[in-house]
Amino acid sequence: MSGATRVLVLNAGSSSVKYQLIDMLDGSRLASGLAERIGEGNGRLVHTPLSGVRRESLQAFPDHDAALKAVAEELAADGVGLDSPELAAIGHRVVHGGKRFTAPTLITDEVLAEIRRLIPVAPLHNPANITGIEVARSLRPDLPQVAVFDTAFHATMPEYAARYAIDKAVADEHRVRRYGFHGTSHQYVSRAAAHLLGKDPAEVNVIVLHLGNGGSASAVAGGVCVDTSMGLTPLEGLVMGTRSGDVDPGVVFHLHRVGGLTIDEIDELLNRRSGLLGLCGDNDMREIMRRASEGDADAKLAFDTYIHRLRKYIGGYYAVLGRVDAIAFTAGVGENAAPVREAATAGLEELGIAVDPELNSVRSGEARVISPQYSRVAVAVVPTDEELEIAQQTFALVHTA
Ligand SMILES: Nc1ncnc2c1ncn2[C@@H]1O[C@H](COP(=O)(O)OP(=O)(O)O)[C@@H](O)[C@H]1O
Ligand SMILES: CC(=O)OP(=O)(O)O
Ligand SMILES: [Mg+2]
Predict the structure, then answer these.
(1) Where is the active site (predicted)?
(2) Residue 150: active-site member
(3) Ligand 1, from 20, 282, 284: best to mutate by most atoms within 8 Å of Cβ?
(4) Per CATH, is 6-149 categorized as 3.40.50.2020?
């Protein structure tokens, strides 16, 4: 075992790579950044070193390989390059781990093949995750590479929450069940919410609302996930930026038989042209709130539909948990959009849920309670940190291996 203590975390998306280099001795970020618009000809790399100023460079990234090499150059320029002997491992966010991967996993050729086999159930995510792994392995073939799966935290869901009520034999043959996603965030945030209340995570029940571009809710009882809103794929559940969330499956048959759309066209419609974007032409919550405040009817309807679905999940998970100690808002929308938090919790005093308007309007990067003292359920804003969680799980694995 070497004394190397740094972990590089890669979160490769379809057109971007987010990264953080973290020293596990003290959790400090030696560097972080984002390479975006990969393959689009107008790429941009934003790199933030531990000390010193943020650097932004415009350069075309024909593919993920080029983007990761540019990231490696930025790290090298800071003296923390990929060739550093201090680097202990590279941790990768992998969105779908299927039924097999329920814990952080050392990546081998065989593991990679299994992640590839899961592409049909995470078509927007797993291909990019695989590319990130391949490029990182080619740059540092000697280093342990670890996959941390979005699905893993949800593997504890009871069978009745993970099952769809369809023919059991068909479901089993095709591995059709609810897996859930954003698990790394739900795990981190549910634990952080407990700590914010000064309590042991094993003692508290939390509803976590991860509201980013993709969005999902989870019910976490004593640190264990008991239900979540995404399913076989990251399409089920909440209204998202471009994804519909829950629809009657009959919609698919109807669009195919009566509307004449192919299955691929319906897939594309529900994943990329629905949600907030489909309802009002915008998927950025900031823009939607601005338009709605100016009286734009489509933006108002998109906002209201988003909130209505969110409230249904809050109510549903309240019943699933029986007792709720905290509701934690996280990710881009959850952390920043006070009107979303206000609307999602309005009128729920009978359930012991209330939000203090003043506390809710505070802008801060810190975890904070936004409910008044008297509120039985603590409502909180808890910034997620998927990268730190991935780094910790990666480091723990290579240290016990
Ligand atoms: N100040 C803000 N107010 C409202 N929404 C915001 C704000 N800042 C960011 N967002 C929303 O957060 C979303 C992105 O969230 P994020 O968690 O970064 O998503 P992802 O990781 O899925 O890309 C954006 O689409 C935007 O709508
Ligand atoms: C699984 C998922 O929806 O991830 P993201 O929000 O990053 O798209
Ligand atoms: Mg995210």
Answers:
(1) 150 (proton donor/acceptor)
(2) yes
(3) 284
(4) no
